[in-house]
Amino acid sequence: MKLEQKNAVVTGAGSGLGLAVAERFAQEGADVAILDLNIGKGTQEAERIAKATGRKVVAYQVDVANKVSVQKAFEAVERDFGAIHIFLNSAGISKIVPFLECSEQLWDQTLDINLKGAFLCCQAAVRSMVNHQVGGSVINMSSQSGRAGTSQYQAYCASKFGIVGLTQSIAQEFARQGIRANTICPGVVFTPLWDQQLEDYARKRNLQPEEVKPYFENSIPAGRLCTVEDVANAAVFLAEDASAYMTGQSLMLCGGAHML
């Protein structure tokens, strides 16, 4: 139980990577606030995790790109849980669109959710950590596309590169207050988000949708895709005391596809 007596907040935790991390945090002894735009799904998963782990797990609705929504959600979390010890940002979107076809609307939406949303939520989480003087661990979900650009992901890459810079800035500013900030950069993980863009990626590579997974497996030195368990393991490490001397870093979880 590596996270006993810790309160964790996870955004985008109604599904995908955020859900896997929230569940693992609870299994490791943390009480967990699940933040998601889809409050129905968030509540359903919170109740399931609470029943399975015996931890306090509560869902809150939030639009991470809206400052008022973020403030209200974090105020509710502090009221119900007290100090925030761990914050993990996983809310995000991804679209595969050729550069010359990327609309201003898609660009703004991607940066608003992925980068502005991370900024607003990190600000709220760090403010709580500072006010309660508990130190803490901030973990932002970037991507291998936040360390090495790739075609037809212009808005996504820009947002995820921005996450790395945001995280390093937080790490520099708050290290003396015991607040650490690190980034997880997963490779391809087949979550519901990836399911939505499978056909677009297949089109990009002139593949059939069923050929995409073998294509990735053959191109990754480790011979397999990243899993939600891989990400959850990294998140626990960055949240616990074993990583107490690590801040401002980016963990690449891509099976050797990129070595930066």
Automatic annotation (TrEMBL):
<keyword id="KW-0560">Oxidoreductase</keyword>
<dbReference type="Pfam" id="PF13561">
    <property type="entry name" value="adh_short_C2"/>
</dbReference>
<dbReference type="InterPro" id="IPR036291">
    <property type="entry name" value="NAD(P)-bd_dom_sf"/>
</dbReference>
<dbReference type="GO" id="GO:0008206">
    <property type="term" value="P:bile acid metabolic process"/>
</dbReference>
<dbReference type="InterPro" id="IPR020904">
    <property type="entry name" value="Sc_DH/Rdtase_CS"/>
</dbReference>
<dbReference type="GO" id="GO:0004316">
    <property type="term" value="F:3-oxoacyl-[acyl-carrier-protein] reductase (NADPH) activity"/>
</dbReference>
<protein>
    <submittedName>
        <fullName>3-oxoacyl-[acyl-carrier protein] reductase</fullName>
        <ecNumber>1.1.1.100</ecNumber>
    </submittedName>
</protein>
<dbReference type="InterPro" id="IPR002347">
    <property type="entry name" value="SDR_fam"/>
</dbReference>
<comment type="similarity">
    <text>Belongs to the short-chain dehydrogenases/reductases (SDR) family.</text>
</comment>
